Amino acid sequence: MKEKPQSYYIKKYFRALPTTFCQGCGNGIILNAFARAVENVGVSQKNILIASGIGCSSWIPSPYFKSDILHTTHGRAIAFATGAKIVNPSLKVVIFTGNGDCAAIGGNHLIHAARRNIEMLVLCINNFVYGMTGGQQAPTTPVRALTTTTPQGNLERPFDLCKLVAAAGATYVARWTTYHVRQLIKAIEIGLQKKGFSFIEIISQCPTYYGRMNNFKDAAEMVMWFKENSSVKGDRKILVGEFVNLP
Which of 30, 48, 72, 113 gets the highest tally of CB atoms within 10 A of its CB? Predict the structure, then answer.
């Protein structure tokens, strides 16, 4: 199949460009991947409802993606999305959330939506910090990583969000990085078509806070680090792949 030009996606799927994301941020890659997955699956934009919480990642759909969007309160995107799904079960409900928004203040909603196996797709963008509020330690900050609130190195073990939602009962669970664009698009395609709770963790670069604090010279170096330190075999620092895929 012939690849469609970027101008096609810009006209059909994007409401406002350029974005206001920091230079080198991975959010643009994720926005592009989502648009291509929607195109490939053939879901009507009129049937998509996107909910997002608070944080850099929550600005990916709002205002940039051309569909109905709820930009909600901190950590509550899944709760709002659940209400929308109950009122209109025919909606294809998608949540854009960050590691802080989803795993800290929104952690309770995440666990119970997975436990109830509510039909929705959660895209959790994990940049290892609270990016929008100054680069503080988050529930997914790696051990010994430097943040603005852990200047001597993080001492706490990070959450494995994929294991968490898999144990709670999710139907589909996967993790990719912004280096694995084709795999990410495919995972989003699968998640959009599942009749249950789908969760995709996307490891993404934040050169402004996490990268600068941890001696990455730029975003490109961070993405190459993702490439060199991730594996589907579990023999590197970042385990990627598809972990749950139930009918």
Answer: 113
